[in-house]
Target: LLM class flavin-dependent oxidoreductase
Amino acid sequence: MKRIGFLSFGHYQPVPGSAARTAREALVQTVELAVAAEELGFDGAYVRVHHFARQQAAPFPVLAAMAARTNRIELGTGVIDMRYENPLYMAEEAAQTDLISDGRLQLGVSRGSPEPALHGPATFGYVPAEGETEADMARRHTDVFRRAIAGAGVAESNPRMTGRSVRLPVLPQSPGLSERIWWGSGTRATARWAAEQGMNLMSSTLLTEDTGVPFDELQAEQIALYRQVWRETGWAREPRVSVSRSVMPIVDDLDEAYFGRDRGSTDQVGSLGEPGLARFGKTYAGDPDQVAEDLAKDAAVREADTLLVTIPNALGVDYNAHLMRSIVEHVAPALGWQPAR
Model:
């Protein structure tokens, strides 16, 4: 394991026990968490993106704020739902944020996940073309976005302004950003597609398919297929692969109160409201030595180069800094990881 980052869902709600009662509190605390993570030696600070929910919705302002307060840590998303995006405007936002961060942006994008809105992308003005599905539209938006950040001309110039007829790229451009795009994959088929497209692979704590094998083995199979297709496609660079896990080492009474019930957690199989079954990964909660041992045996964790630990952001900055410190001190070394300084 080369890198460890945190993944915040950005929850906020005015309920008892929440330290993030408003959207502003959740946003400001996300920036503070990035600062704390960098001080602890974490390699990445990532935010989840959801629409029509009390979570992070527009990631680039908070990513830019995180960039302004940190110097080393990677900043990313897991994932941006491309059904909702104007890909050329997103290319401008991404490039500017990447320039502010001095090239630390790692953008996870995908088709998105089940959501509260019945026709959310259409409400934003994005409707699949004739014969397209919403997943097809997300991939089309992704293709336009990736070509734009790579410098492709996307608009005809006005010869009266430019003196000649050329194709104009969006500006600014941020060198190297095109190699730091990840596809959030929930199946083996989409992992194959991501490899064919030359995108890094981001796999989360759930897969939208179930073959009856344990979650980590199914995910490891997905990663192996991705890497095989990557090699067969002939890409020159080495791809990156991340997996997400809920990791809760219990070192004091407060940890026990919050997560003691998750000791002995197992995989879950269920429905996300769409056809077919999904397999959800377990929570790694318990004594630090046992958590470290179990994570070290996780087949997909062994295959990935980046581990994103999901954090309970609504419990506040102090508690999550404590949680990350416990992971750094008691769990991560067993995975062969050392903190960056």
About this structure: The radius of gyration is 20 Å. Residues 215-233 form the longest helix (19 residues).
